[in-house]
Write a structure and sequence with these properties.
The protein has 197 residues and is mainly alpha-helical. It has nine helices and two strands.
Length: 197
Amino acid sequence: MMSYFNYLCSSLGLKKVTMRKDITQTKLNEEPGKPHDFMKLYIAIQPRLYGFVMSMVHKWDDTEDIIQETLSVMWRKFDEFEQGTDFAAWGLAIARYQVMSYYQRQKNLKLRFSDQAIELLLEHNIQNENKDDTFIEALKECVSKLSDKDRLLLELRYEINAGVKDIASRFNLGINAIYKKIGRIHGMLLICVRSKV
């Protein structure tokens, strides 16, 4: 099954190229222009968008849906984006509206953020952009120090989105052992990142 991101890349004439495990770049099948400019800007802010939406929604499937809606709106309105201004702030504002729309459709949720809380989180996210970049760089460095097996486990779980049962089968371990291993890796990464930021 093709992810929405890969689908969008192919529909815009872009080819996804993995240069290294931790870096994904796009390569044009055509001359630079609107699709190239958009994807270049979007790829740079994609982790922040996911982080912002996930902090509001806490469900991966709903986060994916909101990101897809956000990306669609950003693409449709890209002509309205003023070059040279803050693309991340623009994208986060669109994501905020998509999150608010999600909450309006999910009125029966017991736990939901108020519009004011969403505004405060968005403001916090924009103000802490440089801190996020520092954190991401520290996390990349810490992940690179993990063993090959631990990096593979994280890749399977978070990049490929494999289920714990499938991972357990691949590693010939029980499901509880995989959860413990993931918890141990998270703990090691937390200590490492805190020592660097």
